[in-house]
Design a protein that fits this description.
Number of helices of chain A: 14
Helix content of chain A: 25-40%
Shape of chain A: elongated
Oligomer: homodimer
Amino acid sequence: MTSGADAHILVTYAVTDSDPAAVAEAIRVEQTIEFPVDLAPTWIQDTVVGTVVAIHDDTIVISYDPRTVGGDLVQLLNLIWGNVSLFPGVRVKDLSLPPSITGMVRGPRFGVQGIRELLDAPARPIVTTALKPMGRSTAELAADAVILASAGFDLIKDDHGLANQPWAPWLERVQHVSAAVVDAAERSGSKSRYMPVLNVPTAQIHDAAYAAKAAGAGALLVLPGISGFDAMRALAEDDDLALPIMSHPSFLGSHMVNRTQGIDHGILLGTIMRLAGADMSVFPNLGGRFSFSAQECLDIRDRCASELGGLAPIFPSPGGGMSLERIPEMIDFYGHDVALLIGGALHRGDLRANAEAMMNAVRAS
Amino acid sequence: MTSGADAHILVTYAVTDSDPAAVAEAIRVEQTIEFPVDLAPTWIQDTVVGTVVAIHDDTIVISYDPRTVGGDLVQLLNLIWGNVSLFPGVRVKDLSLPPSITGMVRGPRFGVQGIRELLDAPARPIVTTALKPMGRSTAELAADAVILASAGFDLIKDDHGLANQPWAPWLERVQHVSAAVVDAAERSGSKSRYMPVLNVPTAQIHDAAYAAKAAGAGALLVLPGISGFDAMRALAEDDDLALPIMSHPSFLGSHMVNRTQGIDHGILLGTIMRLAGADMSVFPNLGGRFSFSAQECLDIRDRCASELGGLAPIFPSPGGGMSLERIPEMIDFYGHDVALLIGGALHRGDLRANAEAMMNAVRAS
């Protein structure tokens, strides 16, 4: 076991509309013993209860002994944000994790470098898109997938809302589209991979991932806001599965969009997604249908790559209402270590022509 | 397949600081096809895309064909709150679910009536408490559990932050405390049950639940904000496990505490917890360390019992900073169908005397 502040977990919170010192005192207890401090043995007060290590204006920093986590990602999440998620006006702004904590997880299996090798794309942005819309049949979705794979799209994912609807049931879709993409990639010489969504009953997620792999799928789309971050971690750490993972922010928005409460965008979609094993993290790009600001998007980008106990950097994957015309601007904004995600706009006009134009735009970048 | 509005899913949202009609139009597409509506085939526009069925002031109601859910709770959650969770100023206010949706799940296995029978408590409030604080050894926690079981506490749960810390490792704790509570209940003639927390790695949650049952545990505490709602549902629906489940709101706060964004307290902690199989739903009582208002607490209580496709009503379980003195007021406020949760305050003074006083107060109610 470690001791000394540099081996502790540090969580930085911003406090709004409350006394920061009082909130700090509440958090250090709430997130650990949930018990009147004066009734706890002295060693528990000193060791198990968090310590307020800084209060600067509205920013507080709490330090925790890594033993409070007990070695599991689930309890790390509970320590950082379990009960305090119920406090109004408190927001996670930064995390500092010692090696004993980052070492609990494998993190991203592929990361930026591994994904680039798999896709034979040593430097350019990765290009991804989604099979849409819900309601189309497996055959129709597979036909689009063939066009997209032939155009050289790197990753062709299920729209995240495709589940097990009767129009294109999950297993049927995954088997047919996997085979179609494998075939189209072979014919065209591309490295295209199909990425089915694993928004399946949680107890079936492992078997579904294996069924997808057996069918020829080349990556997995996971919704940790619904399946849980730890379910994604287990998939990422499975040596026999060994498929790239893209995370999707479904059901996670409330943690971020209320600016004085929740978890900073970069912490949740960068740091925590990496801890939970995502190789690529989807988020709504600025200027699309959602609300993320330029600064929030850059924060996600930065936390996808910043030092995190030696865990691999991952691709930020901005999407949501993106158009072909914005590609140069997006590359300018995010840099080349980005997985561009473009969806419905490809379908306005001719899909094949649009897909080829997009690949050309990226290759020219 | 069904047709007609009465067989559809209705989701009511409140919209703040945006044009309700524009938000309604965005949601009905975002939550289904995520695709330019004009590019979708007409039948998909008419059937798969949601329909705006009402706009009254800032309140909008969207109707969805139940086929968009594909039979799974995970996709129901995604339909109601997946991407729209990323919209600022949008909040789920009501859900109306047709039989085809409520029929997907078993819901609470025990519910109010089943829990009352198990605990031989036909009419009074159920009395629960937590083993605390983190840092104490298994032997110390087990000793407290014996006192609490001997005093007749119905359910003695792990504090939700007890995970697999070195001071009282999960399996050691669950085995020793289970045995201690079974023994104390036999000796005292009480029906006390120990309820370990299942904040374990998600892929191990099923095995952990069985290990707990094998050790003699009599109920399970689940954190669906971390493990996922569907992991809890699977535990609830497991006929061989068949243990009562209490849900804890850890990590779920941001969905509720920002009053113009998120999901109404009663919908999340009442309706959704019931769909996901909880028999008892923990939440912070008004006047404790947290922020829930009287109206929000009553909304949770009401949604724990309101009509929901024939699913069993469940116990609201208010806790958090509760004291012995507030018991009569709480019974007055919530009624007798409540699982009172009292924690640290029992430890101020003599635990045995306090525990007996609490049971007497409840029996006198």
